[in-house]
Amino acid sequence: WTEAVAAFTEAQKRGASGTQITNYLKQARVGEAMALGNALYTDRQYAPALFQFKKVLRLDPDHAEAKQRISYAQHFLQDAAQITERFT
Question: pTM for the full model?
Answer without folding.
Answer: 0.75
